[in-house]
Structures
1.
Amino acid sequence: MNNEKLAPENFKVLISEARIQQRLRELGAEISRDFQDSKPIMIGILNGGFIFLADLIRHIETDLEIDFMRISSYGNHKESTGHVKVLKPLSADINGRDVIVVEDIVDSGLSLQFLEKLLSAFRPNRLKFATLLHKPSKTRVPVRLDYVGFEVEDKYVVGYGLDEEQLKRNLRQIYVVNE
Ligand code: 5GP
């Protein structure tokens, strides 16, 4: 199946499907080693993180649970407002559990900072953060990232779960949008 015709002319491939899948194999192996004696709960952050979570867990060789949270900080705008809201709270009880939060992209870092504060209050045993993409040049608060897929420069990216005004999440590669 190839749906790349959904990518208009101004989308340029930044990370190919093959590179994404290769990196997921590496991250999966790392997480399998780090959590071999535990059954972690992996929390996918909706909407953007759902494809990353779905593909990543299939490279992990330890039993695990999944759960989802939905937060919003952007609306349809491309700059972080800094106001993070919980739109769907956690269902699982993470008290005393090993937790891995799975994000699509860390930009300003405000969402992650908010999640760290919120989830630490439930007193998990271990709280780790995985993100497919990180834009270090945009990050303006200290963030602790344990698993990073790729560092990217300060450009708006779409595809593989990441949206352009709620569309294009189903693209199989990651693109940079040229204005
Ligand atoms: P932060 O709170 O770190 O500024 O932003 C995190 C959220 O902003 C991400 O989970 C994602 O939803 C959105 N975001 C930040 N940069 C981009 C980008 O380049 N492309 C897309 N599609 N979303 C982004």
Note: Residues 48, 73-74, 80, 103-112, 156-158, 162-163 surround guanosine-5'-monophosphate (CB under 6 Å).
2.
Amino acid sequence: MTNIVVVGSVNLDLSASVERLPLPGETVTGATMARFPGGKGANQALAARRLGANVILIAAVGQDAIAEEALAFLRDAGVDLSYCAVHPTLPTGVAMICVASSGENHIVVAPGANASLVPERLPPPAADALICQLEVPASTILAAAAHFHGLVCINLAPAREVDDELFAVADLLIVNQTESDWYGDRLDLGRGLVATTYGAAGARLTDHGRMVAETRAPVVEVVDTTGAGDAFTAALTVALVEGMPPQRALEFACAAGSIAATGRGAQPSMPDRVTLERFLTATAASFSRA
Ligand code: RIB
């Protein structure tokens, strides 16, 4: 079985569904509210677990009721939470999310305890792959990657200022189109593999700048894209560690992201392995090189 360590964030998502996203300074009313477990680290840990991997999550939450709500899906799925620190004073991270009827979203994150995840919690246990994102301190990601011997995957989200060193420790960098534009040529500083997602238009995988796989995304009815990138990241990592060829791995990851966009909230819509395999079979014709 594939063993994965995720170093990353845990949030509670406060999600307002609204007809359209507000412009700066504008109030939009008529929304419906829901609370979902979230955070890129937690979402990716859950996605990898549902796809069949053994998963350890290294994270930090607050000593509050929100923490239990935020960790509930991970506990139910059997993600190992024994490396999750509980900070005595900082609150559990919270994300305020607006989701438009088109599925697009705006997210504001209050990191709380996520910012306290420090290198002292590391090195990570041995595993086939390490997955990190940028909602915890970059120094923590660097420390985790420095001691790790398997595949190091860094999802460079959300886009933010980071040292070149961070790119250099990654075997696999994952970005969406906005992040790709933000980082530009610095993506070439990685060890080779770069996956770029283009929403409904699909995804590309390059190795040292050479295209090794490209696919359209299957057509789905989009409800909420929150967590779709997290599903993609986890699925691509699982697929590559399992030894799937690049084209198949990219289709597997795109399918996971597409399914994740069909339901409200990040974690409730993360597909399990059986659902994903069936979806791939049913939509085989819609995958093709873009
Ligand atoms: O990638 C989606 C996640 O980003 C949400 O669950 C939210 O918590 C933010 O961290």
Note: The domain at 3-21+33-286 is CATH 3.40.1190.20 (UDP-N-acetylmuramoyl-L-alanine:D-glutamate ligase).
